[in-house]
Amino acid sequence: MHREPTTSNNVLATFFTRQPIFATDYTVWGYELVFSTETGRELDELLPPAPTDAGARFTATSLCEAGKTVLIDFRQNALSAMPPGKTVIVIPDQPMNDDLEMVFTLLKRRGYAVAIDTDESFLPQETSVRLADFVLIDTIACDARRIEAIREHCQNGSQLVARHVQDRQHLAEVRAAGCVLFSGPFFAVPENLDRRELTSHESSRFQLLEIIERAEEDFDELSAAIRNDAALSYRLLTYLNSAAFSFPERINSIKQAVVILGWKQLSHWLRIIVFTDLNPDIRTEELLITALKRAKFFEILARAKKSPDFDPDQIFLLGLFSMLESILEMPMNAIVARLPLSQELRDALLGAPSPHRDWLDMVNCYELAGWERLESIVAGLGFDFATITNAYNAALAWADAFTRHSSSA
Fold first, then answer.
1. In this entry, which stretches build a coiled coil (predicted)?
2. pLDDT 10s per residue in the chain (409 long)?
């Protein structure tokens, strides 16, 4: 039996976001796909074959192929499309009965891992805890004592996954209580916002960004700045000669790159390469992917909107720079002071209410699955939901592809 979507126009049934799940060393262990509505089925319709949203299915299979584990709700899942070895099926919390036990058995026979989704009313002694491979815990609703009680009943090696972890202090608390995997906004919350000095590496990158963002185009200065940075020159030329571009002739010099690409396209790719090279730390990898995804998401939407108020190149920068505070662990006002950005971008990055700030609010809601507020913001910006969904899916694919090409360069 299908449940009716919670929205009147049924559009949000196709919305999904992916949220990273981190191991204790800050590497990304996998992703959970979070859907906008519960359009699923009752458990007595065992292992339904109907396909899920195409974008979600593509995202899930791509992540599995890249070696990441994917958590996906049983009620949204298309089992025929999901590789068993890297897929965890999330079962909603409910009292154990014969039907539920049969679901566990059938899923495990097919090679899937199973997670039980708990809430504040969950009883730690439930049989499902002993059957599940993973136990998902809402760390806002459950304190450390309750987490420890659940852990004590996990007798078959079930791993505790902490959801909604807010910051690094919260992370330390739930980790001490027994959780070994973690999701939530904590990874994007700076641990210590110091007004520190930039390192020499960071300063050289900012100097290059300053050249790129100036109103006047100085090819000689740009070429010299790139040539003086051997690592950046190598990375740029390697990337431009990769399959991502497939130029008819090989690019062998910075001067040749400038001539072939032109200022606008070269500046575009330099922004991305410089940005992803600012802080090459394992803790920032997902932040970089998030920034790239936001930038492309905004650019696609701006091109679709065709409004003089939202230039695609400028709105791309808004998304790209939106994570700098977390990546550099510096106050945003100190960061934007070093860059020749338009007033609209400065205001938006500093949190001032504005049409450009609405774009950042929109993507924040999307990433955190704040579907009701997202619906309101999308309507205010004049987008339709199909455009938003397609742009987000395309941006995810682009950010993942760029990261793969960049890491192999």
1. none
2. 333 333 434 444 467 889 999 999 999 999 998 887 644 444 434 433 333 456 666 677 777 667 789 898 876 545 556 778 888 999 877 777 777 788 888 888 888 999 988 877 666 556 677 788 999 999 998 889 889 888 887 767 789 999 999 999 999 999 999 999 999 999 999 887 776 778 888 888 888 888 888 878 888 888 888 888 888 888 888 878 877 777 888 888 888 888 788 888 888 888 888 888 887 677 788 999 999 999 999 999 999 999 989 999 999 999 999 999 998 888 999 989 888 889 999 999 999 998 999 999 999 999 999 988 998 999 999 998 889 989 999 999 899 888 876 655 5
Q: Which residue has the tokens 């774009």?
A: 359
Q: What is the pTM of this model?
A: 0.84
Closest CA to 378 of 284, 297, 296, 277: 297
Q: How many domains does the chain have?
A: 2
- Provide the token pair at 127: 């049989």
- Could you give the CA distance from residue 288 to residue 273 in angstroms, rounded to a whole number? 11
Q: Are residues 129 and 248 in the same domain?
A: no
State the pairing for strand pair 87-92/28-35: unpaired
Domain that holds residue 266: 200-408
d(CA 315, CA 10): 29
In the beta sheet, which residues pair with residue 327? none
Q: How far is CA 76 from CA 62, 68, 164, in A?
A: 17, 19, 21
How far is the CA of 62 from the CAs of 46, 87, 323, in angstroms? Answer: 25, 12, 24
| Same structural domain, 128 and 215 | no
What the block records as the tokens of 52 is 């899920």
In this structure, the answer to whether residues 61 and 170 fall within a common structural domain is yes
